[in-house]
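Q: Joint fold for the lines below.
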Amino acid sequence: MTSNLQINALENEAIYIMREVAAQFEKPVLLFSGGKDSITLVRLAQKAFYPAKIPFPLMHIDTGHNFPETIEFRDRLVEELGVELIVRHVQDTIDQGKVQEETGRYSSRNTLQTTTLLDAIEEFKFDACIGGARRDEEKARAKERIFSVRDDFGQWDEKNQRPELFDMLNGQIHLGQNVRVFPISNWTELDVWTYIEKEDLEIPSIYFAHKRKIFVRDGLIWSSSEFVYKDEEEEVEERMVRFRTVGDMSCTAAVDSYATTISEVVAEIRDSSISERGARIDDKRSEAAMEKRKQQGYF
Amino acid sequence: MEVLKIATAGSVDDGKSTLIGRLLYDTKSLTTDKLEAIEKSSKQKGYDYLDFSLATDGLVAEREQGITIDVAHIYFSTATRSYIIADTPGHVEYTRNMVTGASTSQAAIILIDARHGVIEQTYRHFFINNLLRIKDVIVAINKMDLVDFSEEIYNKIKADFKALVAKSDYEDQNITFIPVSALTGDNVVNQSEIMNWYTGKTLLEHLEELDTQDVYNKGVMRFPVQYVVRPKTTDFHDFRGYAGKVYGGDINVGDEVVVLPSLTKTKVKEIYFNNKKYASATRRSSITVTLENDVNVSRGDMIVKANELPKVEKQFNATISWMDNKPLSNGSKYVLQHGAHKVLAKVSNIHHKIETDFSGVVNDIATLNMNDIASVSFLLNKPIFFDAFKNNRTNGSFILIDPQTNNTAGVGFIN
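A: Joint structure:
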């Protein structure tokens, strides 16, 4: 207690945002995918409210096509934190006939999650959903606010966003609306990794290099799995790879890597010449793919 | 790593997006896939050069019209610091976006097209940087390649801009002139070989040396309470911590403090950051403090040092920037958010509108429309604890929320 606090500007900004959420909303929730960004969010939430517990639950929208390593990891983390975990399944949304499974070569459950998410928001009457999206990820996300208002249909009206001045966040909404909150808006991929390294945070094993059965399509490395459509002529091979993002198996491509520790991963990102979302198959659909999904309620 | 936030402003076709693209490219911040996307798009449009603006104009409507219509955030880093650029459009009607971008920045780049020199838009950009008390303004005189890299033209523009600076009342503002060509890269990251008459720093060299902490300017300490932490666990049964961000100065264990509005005197007992205790914390720290005495503190209250009281008043005058489609008029009521404190506010008088081209004021104004800047008096239902904006950017500013739409309708800077 003799020392003076040295601060990390981005961490302090994120903690400030977490506290604004807890203070301004009645039913916030933290959207947790088990990926590195949401793991970072959980850490920031812990710091924001210490010595109290995180004052909101975590929610995972489960596509059913997850990497099994991520789910094991998720359950362990939640037990350690002693917070409530809500899981809602895309499979249930499909079974209810609300959405239809995509078919064909590029089929994925990634866009289907939106309906499951919106249903869950309505079910629990969540008024704020904290997400790990970052502005540097993608150009439509570069326009995103920290408190981003969604209407009754979960839609993002990108041309009519509230201005955000200084660090004042306006969380006033009408009944039925909700706010998506992005505390690590201003972080880059490298910021997240250096934070994970500094805080010594545990992350799912798929972020580290491992041997995996893969096939190459359109220059991207796809995981060979029952959930991923594959043509007969597409050849499966074994390679040392790791994942830079943890989406669903059908929309996340791997990268060649021998990085088996956090510091090796950080070094690799520093030197990397491919952006993180360059390995997201869902973004390659069109130049405006992300913007379109966001308008529909994607986070 | 430290973070420097910069706002950029320029008129249509000043080459603002190209300049940002050039910064990204020359600092090797553009990844292969992003470069490929730019190459692909440039080729499709039939350009024989790389159109860097495609890297920054995020929305479909912008790509269609080739203009920037909202604040976009762009990130790049060097070995020593991270940069966040708030890229704002430069049209007259987008004052609102420029004010927004400038509010989170500690430095601003104003672009001038060397062929056109100081134009009305330049006046407006400088006015907003002034109004927002941006400490460091960089005037980048761009497209020098199109005026034969002429020192004479550069000096003429510099002199014209200095005439503008003379009209400003912000004396401590640092203004730096740099002749650049975003297209060819001269003086952006790398020193120009052609403009050897310019001996100053390149744009990036200059940015590398700016103070990253100035966004919350130095002054007296303000600690607005955001959230009360009450764990109610066995280990922390009676713990009552006040979470918030420190502005202006340092806070130390043992400091004699006053809690507003109750005016209760007490001392800082502990300073927590996560699970560790510290002896002191500097401005920008998001901490939790405990107090010696059992006082009643809630969100919206403010902890200040005993000998540094802010103004505590229900009436004040402010310069406001109006941002809503619905006009502001005399007698209108709003929710006023001042940091973590919300009160009700009534417009008691619109004194005059302020022209953003330094041409003076317009009296007898009944309503304010979007993008107007004006001097307005307010009456509140409860007092707020504030400083003049020029002394404390955060404790001297507030937003106005329309109670019907919940939109952020305007921002104010207290005089």
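Q: Anything notable?
A: The mean pLDDT of chain A is 85. Residues 205-284 of chain A form one domain.
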